[in-house]
Amino acid sequence: MLLENKNAVVYGGGGSIGSAVARAFAREGARVLLAGRTPASLDDVASEISAVGGQVETAEVDVLDEKAVDEHADAAAERVGGIDVSFNAISHGDVHGQALVDMTFDDFSRPIVTAMRAQFLTARAAARHMIQRRSGVILAITATTARLTIPNVGGTGVTFDAIESQCRQWAAELGRHGVRVMWLRTTGIPEALHGERSPDYERGSGEMTRDELTDWMRAKTMLDRLTSLDDVGNVAAFMASDYALAMTASAANLSCGSVPD
Description:
This protein has seven helices and nine strands, in the order E-H-E-H-E-H-E-H-E-H-E-E-E-H-H-E. By secondary structure, the chain is of the alpha/beta class. It has a single domain (7-194, 226-251), classed as NAD(P)-binding Rossmann-like Domain (Rossmann fold). The strands form two sheets. A seven-stranded parallel beta sheet has the order 3-2-1-4-5-6-9, with helices on both faces. Strand 5 (136-143), helix 5 (156-174) and strand 6 (179-186) form a beta-alpha-beta unit. Helix 1 (16-27) runs parallel beside helix 2 (39-51), helix 1 (16-27) crosses helix 7 and helix 3 (66-80) runs parallel beside helix 4.
């Protein structure tokens, strides 16, 4: 198993992406420490993992609360013997469907501020323990919005750009301590979409149905398919494993060819 005897913290572990990664980590032998603001969602994921023999714990943690993040990481590291992997999959409060000229600054800046604070606090909390052991992996998730120009997505593109930039800086400072920092860049993920209608991202006005949105995103790829939750979990497990020891400061490009490197 790729992550046998590893301890992996998954922030936002009750959400669709966080839970997919948590299940993949557990499948590969990791003890998974689910953290998030909604205990019921965390418990549901923990039950699924436990039912197939996985090792899992849950903790209610607000990742925007500096003290809470530090205390959780310190307690977890002491209890289980260290933190080997940290994955941040929290939501950012993005607002879509409005042109920037019609958007309030608060709606534009919210995902940027939220993501920067959450990524910094969770990465720092994990890094302090990883440095002591001279090993560890810190992972984040972004999407093609970081590279594509799409109307009416508010601060989402800037947010993903900022996450990637912050990860590069963490990687530059932590590499000499044996700690790797990377991110997964996906397409839109159909399984993670909410609601039956969305803004019309192609024309920047009106709406799209769920099927129209999926078809529009898929048409931009080279593989004629979109990233799945299984893709995210599988690649996250690989990147967190020793098979990826030569990787840091880089993306795992899961964009199905929509954003070529």
